[in-house]
Amino acid sequence: MIETRELAKTYGTFEALKGIDLVVEEGDVFGFIGPNGAGKTTTIRILTTLLEPTSGTARVAGHDVKEDKQSIRKVIGYMPDSFGVYRDMTVNEYMHFFAAAYGIPNAERNTLVDGLLDLTDLTYKKAALIESLSRGMQQRLGLARTLVHDPKVLVLDEPASGLDPRARIEIREILRELRRMGKTILLSSHILSELQEVCTRIGILERGVLVAQGRLDEIIASARADHEVEVRTTDDARAAVVLRELPGVLKAEHDEDRRVVRAHVSEELDLAALTAHLVGRDLGVRGLTSLDPTLEEVFMTLTKGLVQ
Ligand SMILES: Nc1ncnc2c1ncn2[C@@H]1O[C@H](COP(=O)(O)OP(=O)(O)OP(=O)(O)O)[C@@H](O)[C@H]1O
Ligand SMILES: [Mg+2]
Description:
Elements lengths: L1 E10 L2 E7 L2 E2 L4 E5 L6 H8 L7 E6 L2 E2 L4 H7 E4 L11 H11 L4 H14 L15 H12 L6 E4 L8 H16 L3 E6 L2 H5 L4 E6 L2 E7 H7 L3 E8 L2 H9 L4 E7 L4 E7 L4 H10 L4 E7 L3 H9 L5
Parallel strand pairs: 4-9, 4-10, 7-8, 8-9
Antiparallel strand pairs: 1-2, 1-3, 1-5, 5-6, 10-11, 12-14, 12-15, 13-14
Helix pairs in contact: 3-4
This protein binds adenosine-5'-triphosphate (ATP) and magnesium ion (MG).
C-alpha cells in the first residue's frame, strides 16, 4: 500500500532522509518510530504529496507521489502533527465544513458527520465550540476530519502526542476500530510502548536511516543477542559469583535492593542447566524469571552506533 525506494530528502546540505525503503502492506497498522528529528514528519509529508523528495521514489496505493498527486490525495487521510483548529466553530460546523470541502453531496453530509462523531466518541460535543474541547477531544476531532472522504490509507503524525494515558487509550481504541474497517494506517510516534499494543508492524527511523522494519516480535528477536534473567536464591551474593562460572552467562550481578541476581545469558543457554548449576552448588532457587527486553532496550540496541 505504501512503498518507498531509496527515498531521500535534503534540506540545503542537511540530509534529513538518507534513502529509506519503507513497506507498509494493505491492512497494516504500521508504527513509525524515531526520536525527535529522525525524519518522520519529512517522510510523512512526502507520502502525503506535500513535500517533494530529493531523490528516490514513493508510491501510495500504486500512485507515484511526484506524478500522481491528485490520486494520492483522494485515497489518503492525513492528520498533521499540529493542525490549525477553527476555534470559533462548533464541532458539527467544522465537520460539515470539511465534508463540503471534500465535495461530499449535501444530502449525505448529516449521516456521514454523525457516523464519524459516533466513531470518535464526540456525539455529545456536537454543538460545542472547538475552543471548549480538551486536547484529547481535539485530537479525536482531527481524526474524524481526516476520515470524511473515506480514505483507504491513513497517515497520522503523532496522533497521541500531548495526551494523557486515558486519551491515549481512547485513540488506540479508535485505531483498532479503523483497522477492523480495513484501513491501512501509518502512525508516527516517539513513544515506543504506545505502539506495542496497536501496531502490526513497525519501522524504526534514526537520523534519516530506517534501521529496522518488520513485525514487532521479529524485531525484538533480531535485536536480542542475549537475554536477561532474574534469579532469586537462598544466597544471592554467592549465586552471582557461581553463575559467572557457567559458560553462557555473560554477566551476573547481585541487585541488593531488589534481592535478585540479574544475569545476561546467551540465547543457547538452557535455563534448566542454569538452575541445576545453582542447585549443584548448594544454592536453593526460589524463582527464575526470563525478562523480555522492553521496546526501549530494543531501540537502544538497534540504534547503537548511529548516534554521532
Ligand atoms: N524545512 C526544513 N528546513 C530545514 N531542515 C528541516 C526542515 N524540516 C525538517 N528539517 C530537519 O530535518 C530533520 C528531520 O525533521 P522531521 O521533522 O522530519 O523529524 P521528526 O522525526 O518528525 O521529528 P519530531 O519527532 O521532532 O517530530 C530535523 O533535523 C529537522 O531539523
Ligand atoms: Mg515530526
